[in-house]
Design brief:
Shape: globular
CATH superfamily: NAD(P)-binding Rossmann-like Domain
Number of domains: 1
Largest sheet: 7 strands, parallel
Strand order of the largest sheet: 3-2-1-4-5-6-9
Number of helices: 12
Strand content: 5-15%
Radius of gyration: 20 Å
Number of strands: 10
Order of helices and strands: EHEHEHEHEHEEHEHEEHHHHH
Structural class: alpha/beta
CATH topology: Rossmann fold
Distance between the termini: 42 Å
CATH architecture: 3-Layer(aba) Sandwich
């Protein structure tokens, strides 16, 4: 795939888990990346990106911006042909879903896309949405036309009180389609990833993915994992999908970017041979009734409704459009999990092990 390095691109959330790899691949291709960040003077936060920029032909330029501040992306977006909007919090345990999840997702998307309307150089916006804008719970699979999640389906079961993260991603993506539909100059291409796995540009990521995989090795799940079925995709594959969505001339619409229909048990199982002697890797799934009983006691953010509508129920998504339209291939689940877990060991996430 040919990458046009002649004009700059903007990447929101550039210090984030997914965006870090997008920025890396763009810099390696010689692109000038405009990175709007809260504090361009925070050397610690920008350390990993700066280190990549030093050894690649591309250039990174930082701009001060705030996701919730209207007009704050104007300087960063000026002259850019492509905008990657990846910035949106992925946290499951929140005190105020409206303030911590929905406002940043919805208002942030609105601010970025309305700035694209005002910036004549922008030709395409690539939005990081999620598979949870397609479904709210695994139970929703039973309502799909052919027993599989596809790009034509929308999440109708999440709300501010049930699966608020999923709700935030759904309302944000709907807002994006509404804004793009009111103009005709730039194109919107949407990426809908499943659970993102694999090593980060920084080993100290704040994404919930880090928390989950860390629990496979710190003893949290030593008695067994919840019988959760889900999709998973490697962060490096996902980042390549974003770049294909940006530069392939015919890319359009939504794309389920998910390498594997899997389970927590299968994910943990990929680690047993290599790490099972030294770390308490879970080897079985907990019974649903036990998860239902204990979940709210152990973690108030996991409700019994969530357990009922997800545990033990299949999750099947069709990723064929991503392969056909974006040229995607997906690396093995074991590679993603092993690389991720090894990074955690190397960065001291488990102490002495």
């Amino acid at each position: 795939m040919q990458i046009d390095a002649s004009s700059p691109v903007m990447v929101t959330g550039a210090t984030g888990y997914v965006a870090g790899w997008i920025v890396k691949y763009l810099l390696e291709a010689g692109v000038t990346v405009h990175a709007p960040v809260r504090d361009p003077g925070n050397a610690d936060k920008l350390h990993y990106l700066n280190r990549i920029a030093e050894s690649t032909p591309g250039t990174i330029k930082y701009f001060k911006a705030d996701l919730l501040s209207e007009g704050s992306y104007a300087d960063a977006m000026a002259g850019c042909s492509i905008v990657f909007h990846t910035a949106s919090p992925f946290r499951l345990g929140v005190a105020d879903p409206q303030k911590e999840l929905i406002d940043p997702a919805l208002l942030g998307t609105r601010n970025v896309l309305e700035e694209a309307n005002r910036t004549s150089s922008v030709q395409r916006v690539v939005l990081t949405s999620s598979c949870v804008a397609i479904y709210g719970d695994s139970a929703d699979l039973a309502q799909t036309p052919n027993g599989v999640f596809t790009e034509e389906i929308w999440n109708t079961t999440s709300s501010i009180v049930h699966q608020p993260y999923s709700f935030s991603k759904t309302v944000a993506e709907k807002e994006a389609w509404k804004i793009v539909g009111a103009q005709a100059r730039w194109r919107l291409v949407v990426i809908n990833p499943s659970l993102v796995l694999g090593p980060g540009i920084s080993p100290h990521g704040t994404s919930a993915s880090f928390d989950l995989v860390r629990q496979f090795g710190d003893g949290t799940f030593k008695m067994g994992v919840p019988d959760m079925h889900l999709g998973a995709v490697d962060v490096r594959d996902l980042s390549r999908a974003h770049i294909a969505a940006a530069y392939l001339p015919d890319a359009e619409g939504r794309h389920i970017v998910s390498g594997h229909n899997t389970t927590f048990t299968e994910m943990a199982g990929t680690l047993i041979d290599k790490y099972g002697k030294d770390y308490p890797i879970p080897r079985r799934a907990m019974p649903k009734w036990l998860t239902w009983l204990m979940a709210p006691v152990v973690n108030k953010d996991i409700t019994r409704k969530m357990v009922s509508r997800n545990m033990g129920l299949p999750w099947i998504a069709d990723n064929s459009k991503s392969k056909r339209a974006l040229g995607m291939t997906y690396r093995p689940l074991e590679e993603s999990m092993t690389d991720f877990f090894q990074q955690m060991i190397d960065s001291g996430a488990f102490g002495e092990g």
